[in-house]
């Protein structure tokens, strides 16, 4: 018999020695149960194997969990959302169990305990929600408030003999003062003095009480100032109401947005409406200039109003809102003068308190560029210089005005010519500082065009004489300004003595009109 036959016959032999049963050439005594492919791919079998592995690897975590693992017997597991919710629930339970173990480990037998209840994972799909559990914060012991209300006897003390306690007891008063801190304003943070059994003396409590009332009044003042003042974007409730009324009346169709902001005002762009009157035609595009009601950024605003004879009697420094209205009214009157003289400037549509509506210098919501931002050719630069020189002379002679803030920042270039804007600070030449403002304007204009390469540009002293018609002959700027101040002083004395605003400036006839 060959070796193969011996190996095959070995299992059929009777009982023999032990070494024969462990023969490596023999067949195994136990045959494995064969299973189908459907059983291998069964989800139930996979979960059972997973449970066996988890029980062997993490016996403590599974034992501490608040329930068995969701088997999904009665749950449709074909949805990915349901599977994700089931996994999240199991994770939350294990996380909460870990938190409870940490609490017990840290607290131990201590009377002062901590709680991780705020860090628990309360899952919305957990059916075993802790509705019957009481929040630990609702069961804390109040160290100074009795469980049952006790009445204070009329005699003002309790106890007898050495155990007598009056209402002026230091401990009782301290705890009462701590309880009274809860009556402070919500904005005043008093902390958690209740849980610490804090005892405040009367002196400390009175100081905190006074400070809380002061902070409450200060907060009310700040809120009122914010509601009644125009600041960054100049749209406080009163200003919004004015703008809404203009839109509702049909004067304006819509307000698109902010196009410019400065220290004294904010300018918005708007489309004109159809409610045109007989004497006023609303342009297609309008510029809404809203003057800021706070004087924080432009504090010397009263310098241009209180000495102006048109507004001297109405000036009141004690009411800033009236100053703003006068400031807006002043710009309206100055623009009207310039428009009547034919000087290119925005056309006034209407004035409502501190909101001035004018025609828009630009096109399709794009404002005209300032003279400092536009790049002009040498011919256009020369043309702009002579135009500005002519406008300064017209302002002084025909409009009886001095711009007082003329520079490349307040001149726009549109349709091949210069437009003047921002004339709210413009004053008459008889103003106590009118000639000083004119000399400052001449300096700004002369320096800008000299840097721009205009060879024909006059210096500030020559430009001042050309605009004003005065013949001030001084060798240097210091003497020139001294003569200007002398003329202003002479005019001021004349006004005070005669009560008239007639100019006493001596000129050699009308100033020459410079043309290109």
Automatic annotation (TrEMBL):
GO molecular function, one term: protein serine/threonine kinase activity
Subcellular localization: Cytoplasm
GO CC terms, sorted: cytoplasm
Domain RIO kinase: 224-469
Reactions accelerated catalytically: L-threonyl-[protein] + ATP = O-phospho-L-threonyl-[protein] + ADP + H(+); L-seryl-[protein] + ATP = O-phospho-L-seryl-[protein] + ADP + H(+)
Gene Ontology biological-process annotations: defense response to virus; innate immune response; ribosome biogenesis
Named cofactor requirement(s): Mg(2+)
Family membership noted in the UniProt record: Belongs to the protein kinase superfamily. RIO-type Ser/Thr kinase family.
Protein's name in the database: Serine/threonine-protein kinase RIO3
Gene name in the database record: Riok3
């Amino acid at each position: 018999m060959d070796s193969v036959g011996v190996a095959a016959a070995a299992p059929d032999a009777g009982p023999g020695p032990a070494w024969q049963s462990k023969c490596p050439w023999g067949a195994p005594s136990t045959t494995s149960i064969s299973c189908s492919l459907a059983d291998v791919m069964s989800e139930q079998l996979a979960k059972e194997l997973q449970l066996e592995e988890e029980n062997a690897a993490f016996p403590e975590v599974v034992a501490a969990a608040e329930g068995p693992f969701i088997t999904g017997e009665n749950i449709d597991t074909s949805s990915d959302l349901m599977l994700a919710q089931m996994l999240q629930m199991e994770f939350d339970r294990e996380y909460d169990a870990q938190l409870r173990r940490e609490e017990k480990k840290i607290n131990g037998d201590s009377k002062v305990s901590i709680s991780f209840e705020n860090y628990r994972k309360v899952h919305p799909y957990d059916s075993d929600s802790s509705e019957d559990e009481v929040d630990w914060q609702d069961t804390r012991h109040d160290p100074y408030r009795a469980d049952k209300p006790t009445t204070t006897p009329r005699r003002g003390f309790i106890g007898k003999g050495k155990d007598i306690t009056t209402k002026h007891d230091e401990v009782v008063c301290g705890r009462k003062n701590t309880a009274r801190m809860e009556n402070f304003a919500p904005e005043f943070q008093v902390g958690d003095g209740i849980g610490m059994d804090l005892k405040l003396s009367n002196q400390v409590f009175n100081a905190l009480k006074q400070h809380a009332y002061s902070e409450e009044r200060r907060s009310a003042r700040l809120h009122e100032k914010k509601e009644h003042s125009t600041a960054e974007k100049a749209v406080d409730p009163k200003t919004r109401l004015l703008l809404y009324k203009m839109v509702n009346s049909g004067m304006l169709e819509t307000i698109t947005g902010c196009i410019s902001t400065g220290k004294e005002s904010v300018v918005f762009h708007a489309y004109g409406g159809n409610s045109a009157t007989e004497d006023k035609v609303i342009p297609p595009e309008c510029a809404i200039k809203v003057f800021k009601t706070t004087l924080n950024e432009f504090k010397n605003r009263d310098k241009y109003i209180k000495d102006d004879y048109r507004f001297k009697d109405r000036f009141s420094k004690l009411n800033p809102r009236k100053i703003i209205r006068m400031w807006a009214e002043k710009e309206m009157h100055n623009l009207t003068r310039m428009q009547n003289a034919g000087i290119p400037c925005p056309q006034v549509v209407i004035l409502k308190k501190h909101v001035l509506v004018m025609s828009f210098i630009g096109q399709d919501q794009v404002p005209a560029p300032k003279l400092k931002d536009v790049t002009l050719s040498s011919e256009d630069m020369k043309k702009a210089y002579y135009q500005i020189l002519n406008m300064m002379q017209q302002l002084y002679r025909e409009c009886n005005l001095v711009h007082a803030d003329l520079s490349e920042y307040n001149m726009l270039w549109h349709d091949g010519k210069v437009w003047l804007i921002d004339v709210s600070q413009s004053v008459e030449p008889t103003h106590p500082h009118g000639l000083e403002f004119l000399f400052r304007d001449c300096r700004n204009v002369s320096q800008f065009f000299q840097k721009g390469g205009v060879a024909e540009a006059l210096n500030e002293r020559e430009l001042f004489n050309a605009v004003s018609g005065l013949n001030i002959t001084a060798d240097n700027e210091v003497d020139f300004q001294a003569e200007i101040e002398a003329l202003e002083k002479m005019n001021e004395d004349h006004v005070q003595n005669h009560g008239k605003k007639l100019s006493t400036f001596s000129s050699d006839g009308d100033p020459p009109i410079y043309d290109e």
